[in-house]
Amino acid sequence: MIRDHFRIMVANLTTGKTSILDRPGRNEYLGGSGLAAMLFEEFGHMDRDWDDPEQPVIFAIGPLTGYFPLMSKTCCSFRSPYHNQYTESYAGGKSALSLRFADLDALVIVGKAKRLTALCVGSRRVETRDVEYMRGFDALQTGRVLRKMFPGSGRRSILRIGPAAENLSAYACINVDTYRHFGRMGGGTAMGVKNLKAICILGDRGFALPEGKAYSKLYKDIFKQLTTTEMMAKYHGLGTAVNINPLNELKSLPWKNMQQTSSPEADNISGERFADDTLLRNAACAGCPVGCIHVGFVREQFQTNNQYLYRQVGYDYEPIFACGGMLEVTDTGEVLRILDVIEKEGLDNMSSGVAMAWATEALEKGVISEKETVVKLTWGDTESYMQAVEYISRPPNDFYKLLAQGTLKCAEVYGGKDYACVLGQEMAGYATGEVFFVSEALGFRHAHLDAGGYSWDQKHEDKDVKAALDFLIDDARDRIVLNCMVGCLFSRGVYNDDLLAEALESVGYTGLKGKMPEIGKRVQKMRWRLRLGMGYDPNKVKIPKRYSEVTTWKGPIDMDYMDALRTGYAARIMDLGAPIEDDE
Ligand code: SF4
């Protein structure tokens, strides 16, 4: 049943109590990113650090979740252990659909459990279990235990953390249904600091689809558009890994800690090569006909009986760039072996790969020694990287403790800041040029998906600062609308504002036609207000020297252009995040 208010469950891990709240705001915030920011304003604390037990971890879905294809993501918001400011992360799997079937628009978790705990929520059920015995369990093992602990159908989603989050690494992730993740900015640690090992969402209730022809006709139209476009064929076929070769050709593939932006070896870890050598199957988030998730296999031989063990490991472009090219690991199976360890430890694979790339260069340059790294990190040496991942997750010394808090934090103490590939957080895999570097370094989530700076770089040889900044702000706003719906961003070429309004109308949310830009702007400002209110100053962001040394398809980086973009973008962000009284 469509309702204009949001239905929210608040679970307090300190008191063990839960409550259901109704909140208005559908026409102002839609859901997802807007709802999460609205709820953080209510439940979050601007004056307390990220690890304060009362800081909330919020999961929010959108108004079309379960009604239309690719409306399959969940927004998770929290105060980040990475920079102690407001942030968001997105994941799919079955999380969004399970929340819809549990009749919840959002789940807010506050407080801190005394002992390690698993929380199970459904429409008719809330339960916590003491799982202290699972301390140190890896993320995959935890999933196996949870599936037995809370039996359920395909409408059940299991979110869990690994040892890295228990040990409070600033870039530990939340594993969602094995192959999806709230990957970036330390969402796993926001759970770990609450002693929350896992959340099981039971979609134990049905929901009625709209009657009448308008909805079913529109559904069919959208389904057709999404499944017949070239973009969707690309994502289903080779998946995002298809980007390795084109970015390499464009001299935009970060390689060997971005000492290079292309390599003749890149083809060995291309999407085509992964498909030929390792691909086992495709998988999809619930409610998605595209199925961009690619699952490969790693094979290991038991020493005792000569038998083989096969393990399934998901891959995408970003993990391949971070744990392949950045480490100069140029064999598909070897890349998957590193990713397998990262998966179990529950770390963000991009941050882990980039952190290890920095450490390898620092070791090579003599800035750090094996006393710090314990293992001899060497380009292309899978075994040493697998070991280092475990050390980041379970630090044996002060060096790894600091590296687990972020590459730049570590470089500030040990040296080597110039070649720390950090743009707000460990970089995403696009050495496309000035606009992307500035966009990721200053952007709200420091994610490549905040705005299409990487795409602007690939299409524009001109150096029009105003045009580039206008694009970043407007594109971010458009993406925020889809983040409020919480649709998969791969569908943004199909779900424009008009189609979204039409889809909303078809399920019963009326009066939103023409309102999307206004809502996007409102949420954009609100998110920036939260971030700036917690101490973010975009004027102080520095872009490490390595970014001035690379050569892309356009030639060497133009420092004057990059600096103008940086100062201009900082000014626009300050403007967007100005207090409300200044807006009007
Ligand atoms: S395209 Fe991929 S990430 Fe997006 S909803 Fe489908 S399976 Fe999930």
Structural overview:
This protein is of the alpha+beta class. The protein folds into three domains: about 5-200, Aldehyde ferredoxin oxidoreductase, N-terminal domain (Aldehyde Ferredoxin Oxidoreductase,  A, domain 1, 4-Layer Sandwich), CATH 3.60.9.10; about 230-415, Orthogonal Bundle (Aldehyde Ferredoxin Oxidoreductase Protein, subunit A, domain 2); about 425-584, Aldehyde Ferredoxin Oxidoreductase Protein, subunit A, domain 3 (Orthogonal Bundle). The chain is built from 25 helices and 19 strands. The strands form five sheets. It has a six-stranded mixed beta sheet with strand order 2-1-6-3-4-5. Strands 8-7-12-9-10-11 form a six-stranded mixed beta sheet. Strands 13-14-15 form a three-stranded antiparallel beta sheet. The protein is globular. The model has no long low-confidence stretch (mean pLDDT about 95). Bound molecules: iron/sulfur cluster.
Brief digest:
With 584 residues, this protein is of the alpha+beta class. The protein is 41% helix and 16% strand. It has a six-stranded mixed sheet with strand order 2-1-6-3-4-5.
Which topology of the largest domain does CATH recognise?
Aldehyde Ferredoxin Oxidoreductase,  A, domain 1
Helical/strand content category: alpha+beta
Strand tally, please?
19
CATH superfamily of the largest domain: Aldehyde ferredoxin oxidoreductase, N-terminal domain
| Low-confidence runs | none
Strand content: 15-25%
Which CATH architecture of the largest domain is right? Answer: 4-Layer Sandwich
CATH top level class name of the largest domain:
Alpha Beta
Q: How many individual helices? A: 25
**Fraction in helix:** 40-55%
Q: Give a quick account of the main beta sheet: strands, pairing sense, barrel closure.
A: 6 strands, mixed
- Shape field: globular
Order of the strands making up the biggest sheet:
2-1-6-3-4-5
Bound small molecules, deduplicated:
iron/sulfur cluster
